[in-house]
Amino acid sequence: MRTLLAYSGGLDTSFLVAWLTRERGAEVTTVTVDCGGLSAREKRALAERSARLGAVEHRCVDARSELYQRVLRWLIAAHVKRGDVYTLSVGAERGLQAEVLARIAELEAFDVLAHGCTGAGNDQVRFEAALSTVAPSLEVWAPVRDLAWSREEQCAYLERAGLPLPASGGTYSINAGLWGLTIGGGELLDSRAPLPEEHWQWTKGGGGDAVISLSFEGGVPVAVDGERLDPVALIELLNERGGALGVGRGYHLGDTVLGFKGRIAFEAPAAEVLITAHRELEKLVLTEDQRFWKDHLGEVYGRRLHQGLFHDPFQRDLEAFFGSSQERVTGTVRVRLANGSVLVEGIESPFSLMDASDARYGERAASDAAAGAGAGLARVLSEPARLHRRAGQALTLEGLS
After folding, report:
1. Residue 136 in contact with residue 165, Cβ under 8 Å?
2. For residues 91 and 122, is the Cβ–Cβ distance under 8 A?
3. Which of 156, 131, 168, 174 is nearest to 4 (CA)?
4. Short-list 62, 85, 65, 89, CA closest to 75
5. For residue 398, is pLDDT > 70?
6. Which among 16, 141, 251, 267 could disulfide-bond with 202, CB atoms 3.0 to 4.6 Å apart, if both were Cys?
7. 240-277 pLDDT, tens per residue?
8. Which residues contact 5 (CB under 8 A, 6 or more apart)?
């Protein structure tokens, strides 16, 4: 049975390599769809561990640029944050990863595509929704979910076989990607305790401060401190620099797709910096209604992506709207990163709506404004309230007569 296994190197997928080869006699090829967050050393370790666990082949497919073009650019444009906190880091990758795996499985006629999702997480919904859309005839296995293997049972199986456990020892589930890193398990299984400092990854020991400038063209981040970079390299640089300053660390307690609550810790330095800077630049160049409706639809877009609807056509409709809104989101933003915080200190743009008027808030009206325009506008805006009050007074007087 030629089996293509989605492989992250975590406990579930490590267990599956061993279990499928030893208990099911499968010929397992592991594939890591690289959406960022992996060093060259970590990639080598994934390949070595896969071989030791019993896989006949391991592949690493670089999907970072495709992830940016098809997902991350819209998360920046839409300012997506689950619960106003979480930048939807790793979950945003799953639909694309499933699609890449399906391409390989169908092109090379694998008998089965397997994944390590559990029955209590969001990823099973994301994988299954994507696979049922892009490859409905492909046979898909999820043994950890379907046979309800616990983490303790998986660890015990690997230890009995003398096989390696993941670096976290199975206590935590750690997922890293271009848009951030998430940590689940351990103290995060309830709402009470923080993650111990030693288990943070990118922001551990972070502190200090720095000022950087970010340049955008048509909503796309194109340069850091004047140095032009492609979006992937730019995001990786901000993850490194921001993480060293403690930026992007947080906790997210939210609603799972399955309807119950879940809690994770996350580290998303680049996402936090880019969304903060992009939002302030938009305030300078977009009208109020453009921003209001875009942010509202951004909440809708993020919620649907979280639910596994990456391939739904309505997502493309929303992306078309976001793309239209970005035409004038061009300029440079000066950002101070200090001990985990992000503060926008200044913005400039050739499309500045402040520069387009000689009005100065709190000081003088625009030179071409009509005299008394402000008072007239106040009366128009307050007319419904004045009529409501007048009608209430008339009713009160009638009742007293």
Report:
1. no
2. yes
3. 131
4. 89
5. no
6. 267
7. 999 999 999 999 998 888 888 999 999 999 999 999 99
8. 13, 16, 17, 20, 28, 29, 30, 31, 55, 113, 114, 115, 116
pLDDT tens-digit series, residues 194-248: 999 999 999 999 989 999 999 999 999 999 999 999 999 999 999 999 999 999 9
Angle at 32 between CA 48 and CA 135, to 5 degrees: 140
Which amino acid makes up residue 310?
F
User: Which tokens is 66 given?
Assistant: 């495709």
CB 140, CB 1: distance < 8 Å: no
The residues, ordered by sequence, that sit 6+ positions from 241 with a Cβ below 8 Å of its Cβ are: 210, 212, 269, 337
Q: Any alpha helices (H) in 121-210, and if so which ranges?
A: 123-134, 143-146, 151-160
Q: Which residues contact 302 (CB under 8 A, 6 or more apart)?
A: 75, 78, 80, 81, 82, 88
The residue ranges of DSSP E strands in 132-284, in sequence order, are 140-141, 172-177, 180-185, 209-217, 220-224, 227-228, 249-255, 261-267
Look up the pTM and report it.
Answer: 0.90
Query: Cβ–Cβ contacts within 10 Å for residue 307, how many?
Result: 17
- CA-CA-CA-CA torsion sign (104, 130, 7, 53): negative
R_g of the chain computed on alpha carbons = 26
Token pair of 329, please?
């989101």
Give all domains of the chain, ordered by start, each with its CATH number.
2-171 (3.40.50.620)
Model confidence pLDDT, tens digit, residues 275-294: 999 999 999 999 999 999 99
